[in-house]
Amino acid sequence: MSFLKAEWNNLAMINYEVDPQILQKYVPKGTELDFWNGKCYVSFIGFLFEKVRVLGIKIPFHSDFEEVNLRFYVRRFENGVWKRGAVFISEIVPKYAISFIANTFYNEHYSTLPMKHTLTVNEKSREFIYQWKVNNNWNTIHVTTDKTPIAIEPDSEAEFITEHYFGYTKINENETFEYQVTHPRWQQFEVTKNNSKIDFEGVYGKEFAFIANLEPTSVFLAIGSKITIEDKRKL
User: Fold this and answer.
1) Residue 2 pLDDT greater than 60, yes or no
2) Tell me, what's a Pfam family for it (predicted)?
3) For the chain, where are the E strands, in sequence order?
4) Contact 170, 27 (CB under 8 A)
5) Cβ distance 147 to 202 under 8 Å?
6) Which residues are CB-neighbours of 49 under 8 A, at least 6 positions away?
7) Of 20, 79, 129, 219, which has the fewest Cβ atoms less than 10 A away?
8) Which is nearest to 191 in space by CA: 12, 47, 36, 68?
């Protein structure tokens, strides 16, 4: 049985190229940074975590909620193949129980903050807004997209960002948790406008304040799907 079954829907992904040296201390043992066309990325993602069941059980009042996370990309060579995964620097949700489960069982880095979202479908566009409150200020991911789904092209930056099917967590300098994430290949909505306003220093500290001065390399909206998260193993 999968540890968790759910849906990840309407994933607004804002992607930045960064100096890989900034991320080295976060890289779990047994993995290495994963690059696309020589570029090292972090992604800032807002989405809806819906229809959640943990070990087949629906937790009352905790099955549908927003999440915002900051992640980067790694790979691990095992049994003759590369396993591509994500490492989460920070994950924000509005439910304490979700943070407790993720931090306790997967050694993740969840925190709990007030959050809200708005999804609006207009005649020619869709509008996605995810917000979370830090130090009495609301941060906002706000993107407008076309209405027609399009494919995520093979060998594209969007494919690199979305096609990572493992999660890796640094327990300490010598131990790593690995877990598998399953979902079908996603489609996307093309983003036509990005009005996001994020206090990177206020949310992530001085170490990541520099992102506020960067232009995203890309912004897109992955439509999402049903997903599973399998039980972890220690490497």
Assistant:
1) yes
2) DUF2071
3) 4-17, 32-33, 41-54, 65-78, 81-93, 110-112, 115-121, 125-134, 137-146, 150-151, 166-170, 176-182, 187-194, 218-229, 233-234
4) yes
5) no
6) 6, 7, 8, 64, 65, 66, 67, 93, 98
7) 79
8) 12
Cβ neighbour number for residue 180 with a 10 Å cutoff: 17
Q: Is the domain defined by 4-234 classed in CATH 1.10.530.10?
A: no
Domain positions in the chain: 4-234
Q: How far is the C-alpha of 108 from the C-alpha of 89, rounded, in Å?
A: 9
Residue 172, beta-bridge partner list:
none
CA nearest to 75, candidates 89, 87, 58, 62: 87
Nearest CA-CA partner of 91 in 142, 143, 167: 167
Which tokens go with 215? 């232009």
pLDDT in tens, 129-157: 999 999 899 999 999 999 999 999 999 99
